[in-house]
Specification:
Layout (H helix, E strand, L loop, with lengths): L1 H47 L3 H18 L2 H13 L3 E11 L1 E9 L1 H10 L4 E4 L5 E10 L1 H6 E5 L4 E6 L7 E7 L2 H7 L4 H7 L1 E3 L2 H11 L5 H10 L1
Parallel strand pairs: 1-4
Antiparallel strand pairs: 1-2, 3-4, 5-6, 5-8, 6-7
Helix pairs in contact: 3-4
Pfam families: BofC_C
Organism: Paenibacillus terreus
Protein name: BofC C-terminal domain-containing protein
Length: 231
């Protein structure tokens, strides 16, 4: 009888121990999984540079890299902006291959404006009499206005010329080089010379460069050297 009671007590205790062991095992596994996720995230942040410390370090490195590309004049302008600590109205002047465009960027705090300039070392900046900041950049493209209404043709002096509107309106945007008209009339395929006289529509930078390249073969000798320096 005593032996039977002992067996029952042992079985009851064994079930209790087994439940405790199982609960301990589940808790341990959960803790291990949580720790693994945290460790993995931290490792990924470290490797990819997405953690706060890494992001701050990356920002410092990038700013140093940008500063190395800045001209002395631009560095002085950035120092002036930072030292004043003033918020300013900022304008952008964009110089295209054909045409210019101005735009208002809005109000910038001193540090935000300095950061913008550091990130664009090819831009230049100045302050006008009102204390407004004017930024200037060069874009190797045609301005939106030029894309809408520019023509390549022959100017009054026989030069390859870019016009606003058809050449007949004589609104010259830019002249390039003197053309050998006689050679063009005799050697160009039929209709091409007349097409140039009427005006070749220019809608993008590819057409612009293509027309200049095509007719550069007919530049008179004394303008070839100048043309080679510019294009």
């Amino acid at each position: 009888m005593n032996r039977l009671k002992l067996k029952k007590q042992f079985r009851r205790r064994w079930r209790q121990w087994r439940r405790a062991l199982w609960a301990f095992f589940v808790a341990g596994a959960a803790a291990f999984a949580f720790y693994t996720v945290i460790l993995s995230d931290n490792l990924e942040d470290l490797l990819t540079g997405e953690g706060p410390a890494a992001m701050e370090a990356m920002g410092q490195v990038e700013e140093r890299d940008f500063k190395n590309e800045l001209s002395q004049q631009q560095q002085k302008f950035i120092e002036t902006v930072r030292n004043t600590g003033l918020s300013r109205e900022v304008h952008m002047l964009t110089n295209y291959v054909c045409g210019t465009e101005t735009s208002l960027l809005g109000m910038y705090q001193a540090e935000d404006l300095a950061s913008l300039l550091i990130q664009h070392p090819d831009w230049s900046g100045r302050l006008n009499a009102k204390g407004e900041a004017w930024l200037e950049r060069e874009v190797a493209d045609l301005s939106p206005v030029c894309k809408e209404n520019s023509y390549m043709g022959i100017g009054s002096g026989g030069q390859l010329t870019l016009f606003e509107g058809p050449p007949q309106k004589e609104k010259v945007i830019r002249t390039f080089f003197q053309l050998d008209i006689g050679s063009m009339e005799t050697s160009l395929p039929e209709g091409v010379f007349q097409q140039l006289r009427d005006g070749i529509r220019i809608q993008d930078i590819e057409e612009y460069n293509s027309v200049i390249s095509t007719f550069s073969d007919y530049a008179v000798e004394q303008t070839r050297k100048v043309m080679g320096q510019e294009y």
